Amino acid sequence: MRYEAPETLDAAIGLLAGQSGQVKVLAGGTDVLVQIHADMIEPDVIVDIKKIAEMREIADEDGAWRLGAAVTGKELMDNAAFNAAWPGVMDGVRLIGSVQVRGRATVGGNVCNASPAADSVPPMITSRAIATVIGPNGTREVPVQDIATGPGKTSLEAGEFVVSFKFPKRPARSGDAYLRFTPRTEMDIAVVGCAVNLTLDDAGICTDAIVSLGAVAARALIVEDAAKALIGTPVDEAAMDALAAAASAAATPIDDKRGTVEFRTEVAGVLAQRAAAIALERAKS
Amino acid sequence: MGRAPSPFATKIPYEKKDLKIVGTNPTARGDAVDKVTGRARYASDISLPGQLIGRVLRSPHARANILSIDTSAAEALAGVKAVVTRDDFPDMAIEHAASGELMVNFRDVTRNMMARENVLYDGHPVAAVAATSDAIAKQALKLIKVEYEVLPHVIDVRDAMKPDAPILHEDQFTKGVEPKPTTPSNVAARMESKLGDIEKGFAEAEIIIEREFNTKPVHQGYIEPQASIANYTEGGLAEVWTGTQGHFVFRAQIAKLLEMDLSKVKVIPTELGGGFGGKNNVYLEPLAVMLSKKGKRPVKMVMDRDEVFRATGPTSGTNVKVKMGCTRDGRITAAQAELNYQSGAYAGSSLPLATITVFTRYDLENVSVVGHDVTTNRPKVAAYRAPGAPMVAFGVETVIDEMARECGIDCIDFRLLNAAKEGTQTHFGPKLGPIGYIQTLERAKVHAHMSEKLGPNQGRGVATGFWFTLGAETSATVNVGEDGTATLIFGTVDVTGGSRSAFAMIVAEELGIPYEKVRTMSGDTSALGFNFMTAGSRGTAAGSMAAVTATRKAIARMCEIAARKWEVEPDQVVWEDGKARPAGANVGDFAPMSVAELAKEAAWFGGTIAGHAEINVAQGGPGFGTHIVDVEVDRRTGAVKVLRYTLIQDAGKAVYPEFIEGQFQGGAVQGIGTALNEEYIYNDKGLLENAGFLDYRIPVASDVPFINTEIVEVPNPDHPYGIRGIGEVPIIPPLPAIANAIHDAIGIRMRDHPMSPPKVLKALKDQMIEDAAAQGTAAE
């Protein structure tokens, strides 16, 4: 196994393009190293991309944030302005692993590991962040919800990797939130996760909403009907009931060691309501 | 508890006296610094020059016959120095021996360590290799070809008892049934425990409650995986460094399994990263010795976490039926139970212990317990902290709570009405001596916890527990150094990290020197006489009996030195306040001599100062505890949050109270984990799905509140310091206490373990459907 740590994007592209055998991109390593130790993967080459400067940047570009894919959870948590701008994304980031894990783990890695239960992915999706993907054929822009295609699988082509995420500017009176259900309070994996991002008009009526569920399908879902349940309402009890019903209806989970179909379906609706309530509070404040 | 009590066992009567050191909290813990700095040597920290790395090939099937094993390709791989299979180990006849609180059968121990005719669970060892690197060893495992004939399997205890169940052992006929059955069964044994007349008891009852409970197997969850390093020399001697709760028992088992003389095997216990009963059994040790013998180099083996879960002992999964009757004024008249315990692949669960202790917290006239030990396609169960007890307490303490409510009596008052006390006839045999059960209940009743206000969806539960204090063989040596400091070499294993400090305090108290002047260290199997395992809460209780005995012999030797110097008779010298003194004014006017002064002159007056103990400590001084827990149930997700927890237990005498508190808290937290989320999850192929801490959910620190503790001290009459075992009782009550609290919060009785969110949410939905149906009926 060979380890490479290029310092420029071009060097990384060159390294990744020229390889035969299994190549793995490494950022924080909190998934890759675990998979190697568990004999799940045996890469021939590891390309560590965290020494590339632009991948470590957090930039406020006139209200539109750009987040380098190799920025760690801890670095993001320490950025007060980003926390204020996207509290729902940070709800997800704060739930990844433990203090130690967040010191290494990156949002880019969380997205590209393509776990259906990844905690930062539903709020990244509801933020409508766009990933900048680079590879041997140049650069392309991919919405976060289109990166993962199934458990452990992504739409990235051979030699491609995510450089950064671009967040849209936020309208006034917007709020987002992410909640997950886990039996433990930390060091756990979501049984169900739900992110809600909504915007209110000055009368308190919801004008825009997006809802994403994690861990209830092969990848994080956008639930259109759940958003529709909120838009045009003051996010009252009736809207909340419709939201829960839509979220539960959209969930297509499996029975596994982490939860039953019945439980996940039910709790998807509960979390959607609770996340929406927090997002609403944040939009109003 | 494994073996019959000996009439020659040692008891030392309780000595009521003022204590200077015992009962205080020294700031310097004997184990702390090395553990904090990383200097403590666990088994995986030991390395020997030239060592090989050993790895185990494990069964991918729940049950299969082994048709053939071809190791030739693995043996041909460069770097592979040894491969062992069933062919390298002698078969064993049926022979039982005590191994902690459970019994083992060598016919099965050898098969569990290395499969012979068949594999009986996912993870069952089939072969082992030793190679010059871990990578080569892992590669070699892939080259071993095993031909299996996969057979139907059975995982659940109730399924295994059905007449059409796949039978694990064609030669297993249920023991304890007359006449001997003619067909084999997964029920390895049937046992009974009876007192009085159960029919009469139920006839006298005005309220009878009968309930059924099911529990999943749970793992001990020690953080340190099993690890061993063995060195077998051309001279036929074996040395084994290993993480164990009983190095002398391991020596015996290694010697037996490998047909070696005991004297040729030396086992060195390393610092232990948690045991809880799970390190009472050999797994890697005989394999490492055999690989070292064949590979002619030291062999180190460390299990991965998934191997720990798949192949080392969890506790039994159980099916428990409890039926109890009482009068309207709250007097229990009859107590009956049926216990069905999984033993895993081979017979021998904690059932015998559970059967005889089901109702021991109560003073009962009529008891009837029937138990079944049932083989299933899971790893052979091991002891786990009060083995077998939490599951029966789940049943009994829940039914007690139900009966108390039915009678309209407070649940603590109900227990007080029926509480075991000195003189109570147990259904396991003896009458109880002085015990502190009633005190724990009375303290619970007035505890500030009981007056904390509960909010909506919050509830409070109470439950109690009892466990033995095992005695057994215990040896120790006290050496007094030339500078007057003392070293205790103990032969029990300091499983908790606390007994070495407790021993130091007791030796210092006996000698009359400061705690800091006593070092305690564990001795390997060549240093001392045989010591039974640290099991049955005996570590500090029994270990300190040996420490006291050895120290008093050293003191006698010091009195002898003073007598020789003063030219008086030894019985004219007494030991008081850390000094040898003339027994009276008529003996002569001699200045008292301290330990340091005596040590300085010891050589001239006959030799070094030491004292030894090789005793068999009498079993006794059982412990009792009462727990109070508050929970809040999230009605929409079924999540149960533990809000408050209070634990009151009789320790006999708390030698080092902060350590006792730690033991209490640790037991309660393990019990909370057991109650809420821990379970083995098998798929339909009989393979373990959650062989890791991510999905086998022991609690993290933020899952539990601060555990309040109170220590009751009713001295054990047969121990000089009054010490009782305390390690096991605290894990017994949490499961039923939480079940009772959940009922108090939402009116639902949870009888299926674990009380995990999906189960609680399902129960809440079922309750809503029932309520709606009841309202519909009422409306008609």
State the distance separating the first and last CA atoms of chain B: 59 Å
Strand order, biggest sheet of chain A? 4-5-10-6-7
Number of helical segments with 4 or more residues of chain B: 19
CATH superfamily membership of the domain at 174-284 in chain A: CO dehydrogenase flavoprotein, C-terminal domain
Compute the average pLDDT of chain A.
95
If you compute it from the alpha carbons, what radius of gyration of chain B comes out, rounded to the nearest whole angstrom? 28 Å
Rounded radius of gyration of chain A (Å): 19 Å
Shape of chain B: globular
CATH superfamily of the largest domain in chain B: Aldehyde oxidase/xanthine dehydrogenase, molybdopterin binding domain
Oligomer: heterodimer
According to DSSP, the number of beta strands of chain B is 28
Low-confidence stretches of chain A: none
The percent range for helix content of chain A is 25-40%
Task: Please give a handful of descriptors for the protein shown.
heterodimer, A: 285 residues, alpha+beta, Uridine Diphospho-n-acetylenolpyruvylglucosamine Reductase, domain 2, Enolase-like, domain 1, five-stranded antiparallel β-sheet, four-stranded antiparallel β-sheet, 11 helices, globular, B: 780 residues, Aldehyde Oxidoreductase, domain 4, Aldehyde Oxidoreductase, domain 3, five-stranded mixed β-sheet
Give an account of the 3D structure.
The complex is a heterodimer of chains A (285) and B (780). Chain A is an alpha+beta fold. Among the domains of chain A are: 1-49, Uridine Diphospho-n-acetylenolpyruvylglucosamine Reductase, domain 2 (2-Layer Sandwich); 174-284, Enolase-like, domain 1 (2-Layer Sandwich). Chain A has helices at 9-17, 32-37, 73-77, 80-85, 87-94, 99-104, 107-112, 121-126, 224-230, 237-250, 261-284, and strands spanning 2-4, 23-26, 45-48, 58-61, 64-68, 130-135, 138-143, 148-150, 153-154, 161-166, 174-181, 192-200, 206-214, 221-222. The mean pLDDT of chain A is 95. With 780 residues, chain B is α+β, with helices and mostly antiparallel strands. Chain B folds into three domains: 32-40 and 470-617, Aldehyde oxidase/xanthine dehydrogenase, molybdopterin binding domain (Aldehyde Oxidoreductase, domain 4), CATH 3.30.365.10; 46-153 and 220-311, Aldehyde Oxidoreductase, domain 3 (Alpha-Beta Complex); 388-469 and 620-765, 2-Layer Sandwich (Aldehyde Oxidoreductase, domain 4), CATH 3.30.365.10. In chain B, α17 links the parallel β27 (640-650) and β28. In chain B, α11 packs parallel to α18. The radius of gyration of chain B is 28 Å and the shape is globular. The model of chain B has no long low-confidence stretch (mean pLDDT 96). Classes of the chains: A alpha+beta (285), B alpha+beta (780). Chain A binds chain B through residues 39, 181, 183-189, 191, 256-260, 262-263, 266-267, 270, and chain B through 138, 636-639, 676-677, 681, 689-690, 694-695, 697, 699-700, 702-703, 756-758, 761-762, 765.
